[in-house]
Design brief:
Oligomer: single chain
Number of helices: 1
Structural class: mainly beta
Radius of gyration: 17 Å
Low-confidence stretches: 1-25, 92-102, 145-158
Mean pLDDT: 74
Number of strands: 12
Strand order of the largest sheet: 7-8-9-10-11-1-2-3-4-5-6-12
């Protein structure tokens, strides 16, 4: 069986690392839908405790999906076009797929607040050493599985991630640009079935090199 053409980009685009987060008495369960303007894509985050399913769609077509199970320390890449999936171990101590967080950015809260998609969030700024400035609005109390291109191209994977434990970015925008890189369009709290976070029955398990 041939490797799916989206395998490499999907592994980059979907989270490699999870933020270490303390246990909470009440964890978010439900679905968050966000728009990624730079990729012209819609991303759906399904969250249940320490499990996250992320789906990217361009138009009406789902291109790829990833399941992250922090408790089981594994990540599953679903390939709908092949009815196949890949599985790899997840190192929850790694941010952005590297041994340590970068330290080339300054993160700070502004003290101002907004409401996006009906959810209150706190404004923050990430200032890169190269001069790029990102404005964010972060909702507290929603576990965020961080990493890579799911935040949009050009969004740094730096030590700001450790500053928003227990928070979810509702909007990420480069200063001076009209469109946000990423913006949440809806948040729905609801019970999710457990089988949403497992590969569908009958799908073929492939190695990370694209072979059954």
């Amino acid at each position: 069986m041939r490797s799916h053409p989206l395998t490499r980009s999907a592994l980059t685009a979907f989270a490699i690392a999870l933020l270490a987060q303390p246990a909470r008495a009440q964890q978010f369960e439900g679905v968050i839908i966000a728009n990624m303007s730079d990729q012209n894509a819609t991303v759906t985050y399904s969250i249940k405790g320490e499990k996250l399913r992320t789906e990217m769609a361009m138009g009406a077509e789902m291109r790829a999906a990833t399941i992250i199970d922090r408790a089981a320390r594994k990540m599953i890449l679903l390939l709908p076009g092949q009815q196949a999936y890949m599985e790899r171990a997840l190192d929850t101590g790694v941010v952005g797929g590297r041994g340590q967080a970068h330290t080339d950015a300054d993160f700070s809260w502004t003290g101002t607040h907004q409401t996006i998609a009906g959810v209150p969030c706190d404004d923050a700024v990430l200032q890169e050493r190269d001069g790029m400035r990102l404005n964010m609005c972060i909702a507290r109390g929603i576990t965020f599985a961080a990493g890579g291109g799911m935040m949009g191209r050009g969004v740094p994977r730096n030590n700001w991630q450790s500053r928003i434990q227990g928070g979810f970015p509702m909007r990420v925008q480069r200063e001076g640009e009209a469109k946000p890189l990423m913006e949440v369009m809806s948040v729905e709290r609801k019970a999710l079935p457990d089988d949403l976070f497992t590969p569908p029955a009958g799908w073929t398990k492939m190695s990370m090199f694209g072979h059954p």
